[in-house]
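Protocol step 4 of 6: structure prediction from sequence.
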Amino acid sequence: MKSDSELKKDVEQELEWDPSIDAVRIGVEVHERIVTLTGHVASYLEKVAVRKAVERIEGVRGIVLELEVQTDDGKRRSDEDLAIAARSLLMWDAGLGEQAVHVTVENGCVTLSGEVMWSYQMQEAERAVERLRGVTRIINEIHVRPHPTQSDIAGKIQAALIRHATEEAAHVGITVQDGCVTLTGQVGSLGERRLAFDAAWSAPGVRDVVDQLTVA
């Protein structure tokens, strides 16, 4: 098992290695394998890249993001401009109709609401908006219409984990209640945890995922 100091070094090196991240502006602290990141980033997309970079490090049990989004020019994009740009992206890039997802913006915080047919559409909507300059936070309140039975959902998630050759697939417990999937058990890394989480969201009819997985 890596020590906190070893994990800190690994995280710092991973941040420096990623070309989409300005590691100079980010502070790293590790306590009991929980990584806390402080400082500021130039965009919400960079903030997402930081989280994903830390998730790639084996041995990290949790991540605390205390990063502030600050544009390099210091100018804040207007909420109206952000809302217009977000609606355009959702309609054309994410392939969602104007009525499917609603956008509300306040002080750079984008709230997405509405209803979609599939869970991947909810995730795609968030991924589209996170690319926008000026976004400081995203609140995703989109709902997914229920479709298959609970046993169908659990079976599809388990099959997806096996297809991706996840060694810990057999140790992941899956329960489904009214479209809400709860994942339990233990996995070997944050990457495997993310894979299980994404597999759950990709199953048709999933409206919410509760991640109770632990990292060995």
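Step 5 (inspection) to follow. The helical segments are 4-17, 44-55, 79-92, 119-129, 150-163, 190-202.
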